[in-house]
Structures are given as structure tokens and as C-alpha cells.
Specification:
It is built from four helices and six strands; from the N terminus they run ββαβααβββα. It is an alpha+beta fold. Strand 4 and strand 5 form a beta hairpin.
């Protein structure tokens, strides 16, 4: 499994290079880079004018250096990332989706229903809580260390504790 290169927010717009000031709203995004999914930040002005092509995005506000971080990633945003990855076949994205499924199961947004086998390929059938239909998630058979690493990396991308 390849490691992801995850940038922490640099406090600057990836589109213009302009510094994003404390208190200013900006857009964090996942983009397809040479190494897989990478995090990029864009000022609201650049975002509104250029509409950069991204995989997923969220709106945030840059905290002041002395301000305690109160970053919150909603369950709806995690579900949106999860759903967006539904038809991806790239192994890193399959792994990303699997770990998101584990996080969403822990948050009680997804519930395990059954396992389907197709040769050596194992697929979990999960039910979105409150809905009738199931969603399929490929189990890439990650070991505990890989799951911990991916969970940590996803948390770094989204700036939250998962």
C-alpha cells in the first residue's frame, strides 16, 4: 500500500499563493495529484471565480494562532466522501472508502448487513441507518496498522480526530 503525501493547511491559497488571513473563510479540497488524493486550500475569492476541479471539498475558517481549534467534520460530509468514492477502483481510493466505512460504522451511520464473496474478493453489504437499500464496500483486507495509518491520514486531511 502506498503512503499518501498529506499537506497540512499552509494558510495560503493554492490557486493564487495569497496568504489566507486568520478569521477568513476558505475551501479545503481533495484533488487528484501524482501521488493520489492530496489536500489543497483555496481562498473564497479564488474558489468563487475559478471553480477549481476537485474530488471533494469543504468550507472552513482559518483559526487565529491563539484560538483553540473547533474544527468539525459533519457526518453528512463523511457520507458525501463515502458516496463519492462508490465507483472508484484505484486501490488507494478503495482503501480510503473502506476506512471511511469503518468510521461511519463507529458513528452509527452505517450498519453491517452481510458479506458477499466473489472468488477471493470480499464485499461488505452495509445499510445506511434509516434507509432500506444497502451499499457495497470492498474489503481490501487491510491490517490494523494500515487502518490506523489511513485513519490518521484521513483525519489530517480533514483536520479532525477520527
Amino acid at each position: 500500500m502506498a503512503d499518501w503525501v498529506i499537506n497540512k493547511p499552509l494558510g495560503e491559497c493554492c490557486g493564487t499563493g495569497r496568504k489566507i488571513e486568520p478569521g477568513e473563510e476558505y475551501f479545503g479540497a481533495l484533488v487528484e495529484g501524482e501521488q493520489g488524493l492530496e489536500r489543497r486550500d483555496f481562498s473564497a475569492e479564488y474558489w468563487d471565480s475559478a471553480k477549481p476541479e476537485v474530488f471533494c471539498f469543504w468550507k472552513s475558517r482559518l483559526a487565529s494562532p491563539d484560538e483553540k481549534k473547533e474544527l468539525f467534520v459533519s457526518d453528512e460530509m463523511l457520507m458525501a466522501f463515502f458516496e463519492r468514492l462508490a465507483h472508484e477502483t484505484d486501490s488507494e481510493k478503495v482503501n480510503f472508502r473502506f476506512v471511511l466505512a469503518l468510521v461511519l460504522m463507529r458513528k452509527r451511520r452505517l450498519k453491517y448487513d452481510a458479506t458477499k464473496m466473489d472468488g477471493a474478493r470480499e464485499t461488505w453489504c452495509l445499510r445506511v441507518v434509516g434507509e432500506r437499500e444497502t451499499v457495497d464496500v470492498v474489503n481490501p483486507h487491510l491490517d490494523e496498522e494500515q487502518i490506523e495509518l489511513l485513519t490518521s491520514q484521513i483525519g489530517q486531511i480533514l483536520q479532525t480526530d477520527l
